[in-house]
Amino acid sequence: MAPILSVRDLRKRYDNGFEALRGVDLDVEEGEILALLGPNGAGKTTLISCACGISTITSGSIRIGGHDVVRDWRAARSLVGLVPQEITLESFEKVRNTVAFSRGLFGKRRDDAAVERVLEQLSLRDKADGTAITLSGGMKRRVLIAKALAHEPRLLFLDEPTAGVDVELRRDMWRVVDDLRRNGVTIILTTHYIEEAEALADRVAVINRGRILLVEEKEALMRRMGRKVLHIDLHHPLSALPERLARFGLQLSEDGRRLAYVYDTKAERTGIATLLAALAEEGITVADLDTEASSLEDIFVDLVQGDTDEEGRARTMAEKAA
User: Fold this and answer.
1) Where are the domains of the chain?
2) What pLDDT shows up at residue 175?
3) Contacting residues for 44 by C-beta, under 8 A, at least 6 apart
4) What is the pLDDT of residues 44-85, one digit of tens each?
């Protein structure tokens, strides 16, 4: 089956010469949730804007449901719903009318039952006759999603959907997103909350400086790139690490009662047995052991930092060559 979204060698260059997207390739399968992660200015919103027809493409192509977003823009756009970062609602319009009007913008005939289904899906039925100005921030976000779903799109872009809401509302929104996926909507989610991607995504794409660094299933990514930390609780505190233990790269806690040892889960040998033997040789008694796996946030930071370092090295070499 062809992907619902297919991006090929996408480039976006502004008049001032800044290249926001630099040869992006990305496929998104129907029915999945893809988390698009990247620091500020990485190109996340620019990529979404190009897919939704908000921003013009410099070169390359985007196809949605098999339709080119430039040549066959009307058909492509009809398959897409967008929930932007900014809350843009008519303050004194009823919620029901706001959602119904959005449906009409896409040329869909009036269908009160369809509007009611969307309101019900997003727990907005009891707010339907209220105005946007009376709603909380979390409810306004729900209305934005309802607007984006009113014309029954197959692909939904959520650009920072939980920005500025508290933890309770954020988790409530997570349930909404999961329900949408269960109803067959493909979702591309941009977020600064790494735990959001960990909780919701099937796959993760990391973008930085306008380039996709990787696209991989979330669980496989964490298995492949994840590190573990072995925490070693000591019977007696240490004032400093013995020199013979320096080769292990241990971190000693401030109170001297705990050691932290980082090891690679993919390595043939973790070095744990050697470390424990070395501790015994130094007369250091172990009270307890526990391990902690690296989070998606750790992996994301490593990827972006590595890309930044590589970019810096390339720039330095170019400057020397010049």
Assistant:
1) 5-222, 227-293
2) 83
3) 36, 37, 38, 159, 190, 207
4) 999 999 999 999 999 999 999 999 999 999 999 999 999 988
Instruction: List, edge to edge, every strand of the sheet that includes 80-83.
Output: 80-83, 155-159, 186-190, 33-37, 203-208, 211-217
5-222 and 227-293 share one fold: no
Residues 6 or more apart whose CB falls under 8 angstroms from that of 189 comprise 33, 34, 35, 36, 158, 161, 177, 196, 197, 200, 201
Residues of the chain by 3-state class (helix, strand, coil), percent to 5? 40, 25, 35
CATH class belonging to 227-293: alpha beta
pLDDT, tens digit, 9 for 90 and up, residues 117-137 = 999 988 899 999 999 999 988
CA 209 from chain center: how many Å? 16
What fold, for 5-222? Rossmann fold (3.40.50)
State the chain's mean pLDDT as an integer: 86
Residues in the chain: 322
- Looking up tokens 């424990």 gives 276
**Structural tokens at position 19:** 């290249």
pLDDT digits (tens, 9 = 90+) for 205-225: 988 889 998 888 888 776 666
pTM: 0.72
What is the DSSP secondary structure assignment for residue 17, as one 8-state letter?
S
Q: Quickly state the pLDDT bin for 305 (edges 50, 70, 90).
A: confident
Please give the helix or strand (H or E) that residue 293 lies within, else none.
strand 286-293
101: tokens are: 């009007």
Angle between the N-to-C axes of helices 167-182 and 137-149, in degrees from 0 to 180, rounded to the nearest 10:
20
